[in-house]
Amino acid sequence: MLELITFSTLNGVLYGMLLFMMASGLTLIFSMMGVLNFAHASFYMIGAYFGFEISRRIGFWPGFIVAPLLVGAIGALVERYGLRRVHKYGHVAELLFTFGLAFIIEELVQMFWGKLPVDYRVPPSLDFVAFRLFDTTYPAYRMFMLATAVAMFVFLFLVLKRTRVGLIIQAALTHPSMVAMLGHDVPRVFMAVFGVGAALAGLAGVIAGPALVTQPSMAALLGPILFVVIVVGGLGSLAGAFVASLLIGLVQTFAVAINASLADVIGPSADIFGDLGRVTVAQIAPVIPYLLLVLVLVFRPTGLLGNRES
Amino acid sequence: MSAMLEVEDLHAYYGKSHILQGVTFSVGEGEIVSLLGRNGVGRSTAIKAIMGDVPPRGSVKFRGRQIAGMKPHQIARLGLGYVPENREIFPSLTVRQNLFLGQKSTRESGRWKMADMFGIFPRLEERADTPAGVLSGGEQQMLTMCRTLMGDPDLIMVDEPTEGLAPMMVELVGKLLEEIAGRGVSILLVEQKLAIALKISRRLYVMGHGRVVFEGKPADLSADSPVRKEWLEV
Fold first, then answer.
1. CATH classification of the domain holding B226
2. Residues 6 or more apart in contact with residue A196 via CB below 8 angstroms
3. How many domains does one find in chain A?
4. Do B73 and A184 touch (CB under 8 A)?
C-alpha cells in the first residue's frame, strides 16, 4: 500500500508537471490573445520528434537544448505570419486556423517519420534505477523529468514575477491595449509569449518522448486533457493551471491504480446499479478528467482559480 | 505659436456607427486645451483615434509628422501620453509596478521620477507595495495619471480625470494638471465639468454630434450662454 501511494504520488506529480509545462503556455496565450490554441499539443509532439531526430544523429543532450529552441522558433513564426494575419477576421478564424494547423502538423509528422511509434530512447546516462522501495524500482529518468519540469516552473515563475518583461506580460493579460498605449510593443510580446509557450511544450515533448510513446497521435491524445486542465483551473489563470495540472495528474494516476468497484465498497446492494456496480475505478480512469470538466463547467464556470466565464 | 498636435477632418467608426464626423482641432506647445461636450459626442473616441486605439480616418499630425495609421506603441513612443477615462490600472500589480510600467525604457529617465510622483501624492508612496486593484477610485486616478507621466510625454491627453471624484480629489487633480503644464508638457483635457476646464485651459473646444461646434477662449465660452445651453448644460 505504501509503495502504491509513494509511486502513484510521484508519477501523478510528474504527469501533472508535464501537463503544466503545456497548460501554462496555453493559458497565457489564451488570456493575452483570446485564442484557444488547438495546435498547442502539436508543439509538444514536434518537440518529441525533433528530440528523437537530434538524439539519433548527435545525442540526447544536444536535442534536449536545441529541439525546444527550434519548436519555440516555429511557434513564434506561426504567431507572426499566421495568427497575426488571421487575427483581423476574429476569434473564430483564429480558432479554425489553429485547428487546421494541428492536422497539418500531424500529417507532416506522419510523412517524415511514419505512422508507427519511433524508437526514442532514454539516454544511457540516465538509464538506471534511482531508488528501490520494497520490491518496486523507480527509474532515474523519471526523476530527471520531474527535475526538469520543476526547474521550468521556477524559471517561468521568476520571469513573470521578477522581470520587467514579466510585468508587461501580466499587465497585458488583462489590459493589452493600455499596455500598448504606454509605449510597449504588445504584438512583439504576444509573439514572444507564443514562442516561449511553444518552446515549453516542445521541451515537455523532448523529455516525455522517451518515457511515453513518440507517435503521430500523441498530440491528439494529449490535447483534450490540456483543455480540461485550463478550464478546470480557470481560463487565463496560471496558478489555476498549476493546481489543475497536479490535480488531474494525481487523479488520473491514482484512478488507474485503484481496482475497486462500487460492489466492492457497498457490497451486493450495488446490484441495483447493474453492470455499473462492477465497473472498477481503473476502468473509468480515462473519463474522470472529462467528468471533472463537466462538473466544473456546471458548478463553477470560472474554474477553480479563474475569474472569467469560460 | 506652432501647433504640436494637429487633428484635421478626423473620422472614426465603432462598427457601423459613424462616431467622429470630421473633427478638426489643435494643441500648441505647452498649451492646455479642453475638449468639452456631453457624454457620447465622441470626445473619448477622438483621443483614442489619435492614439491609434480606434482606427482613425483623416489627418493626425504630431510635431508635423503624420501619425494616423501608426500603431499605439509607436505613437506613445513619439511622446504622446494617454490617461484613459476608466483608469485601466493593472489591478494585480502593485502601485510601484504600475508606475514602473509607465516608463518606456529603463535606460533614460525623463522629466518625472517615481520620487516626484510620491512627492506630489504621498498617498501613493504609502501604498507603493499594495496591489493597485484595492486603491480607492481617487487613488487609482492619481496612479493612472502618474503612470502615464512616467513615460515622459510631451503632450498628455487626459480623459475625464475628475469623473466620480470627491471635491478634494478634484482639487488635487487640478493641481497636478497645473504642475504638468508647469513643466512644459502640453495637455489635452477631456471634461464634462465646466468649472475646472474654464479655470485651467487656455483654449476650449466644444463637441456635439461628432463635430466641433465651438472654439474659443474660456472667457468667450463664459460669455456665450446659447452654446453652453445647447451643447453642455444638462
1. 3.40.50.300
2. A25, A72, A75
3. 1
4. yes
Tell me whether residues A186 and B73 touch, CB distance under 8 A: yes
Residue A272 included in any domain: no
Within-domain flag for A47: yes
Per the structure, how many domains does chain B have? Answer: 1
Quote the CA–CA distance of A260 and B67 in Å, as a whole number.
69
A167: nearest CB among B72, B84, B97:
B97
By residue range, what is the domain housing residue A175?
A: 2-219
Does B90 contact A170 at a Cβ distance shorter than 8 Å? yes
Task: Find the DSSP H helices in chain A.
Answer: 2-33, 40-57, 60-78, 84-86, 91-113, 140-162, 164-174, 176-181, 186-211, 218-233, 238-257, 262-266, 281-284, 288-299
pLDDT tens per residue across all 234 residues of chain B: 468 999 999 999 888 888 889 899 999 998 999 999 888 888 899 999 999 999 999 999 999 999 998 999 999 999 999 999 888 899 989 999 999 999 887 766 678 888 888 988 888 899 999 999 999 888 999 999 999 999 999 999 999 988 888 888 888 888 889 889 999 999 999 988 888 888 888 999 999 888 898 888 888 888 888 888 888 876
Test the A interface: residue of B74, B101, B112 with most A CBs within 10 Å: B101
Residue ranges making up the domain that contains B122: 3-232
Q: Is some CB atom of chain A closer than 8 A to the CB atom of B144? A: no
Instruction: From B42, B48, B56, B7, select the one nearest B210 (Cα to Cα).
Output: B42
* Cβ <8 Å between B72 and A170: no
Residue B54, all three cell numbers: 480606434
Q: What is the ipTM of this complex?
A: 0.90
Please indicate, yes or no, if residue A309 is contained in any of the structural domains: no
A183 with B91: Cβ contact below 8 A: no
Which runs of consecutive H residues, i.e. helices, occur in B82-204?
95-102, 114-120, 122-126, 137-149, 167-182, 194-200
Judge whether B75 and B155 are in contact, CB under 8 Å: no
Q: Alpha carbon A67 to chain centroid distance?
A: 17
